[in-house]
Sequence to fold (154 residues):
Amino acid sequence: MKIIEAQSAHLSNYEVLAHVESMRARFDAASSNGASSTLKSGNLETVIKELADHLRTPPSPLHPPSSYTPRTIKELFTALKPYRLTKAELLMILNLRPQSEGLLYTIIEDFDDRFQNSEVTNMMTVIANVLGADDTQADGQAAENAEDSDMTLQ
Fold:
């Protein structure tokens, strides 16, 4: 493998996961066809498994069931185009799927100078509509609310 142009593009976590899964499928197909074991290294298999597991573990937005598709990236970037975000900011939004304005604040440089409150609210709505809501956060919030109500009853 040759690197033709270093850092020519940035990949989202979704794209990395898709590539890792395609590599795993290729290696599995090669080993089932009796290909040599040099194609499939033990260390490579471990790295692929651990990376895929990491990318699918909550709070990652890629944990099942994930609403991400190849079309999602294009939709998100198109919907957020009016806000003139940098490529790095868009990539971080895609990778992290911010659920609060506080998290969005940490992603976007000069947040207060660049955006009004209404723009931030609209941005959060766009993100939620395109990337979907985080089910694990909603489940955690429901459990926390249930614990609070139990404490008040005692």
Notes: Confidence is low (pLDDT under 50) at residues 138-146, 149-153.
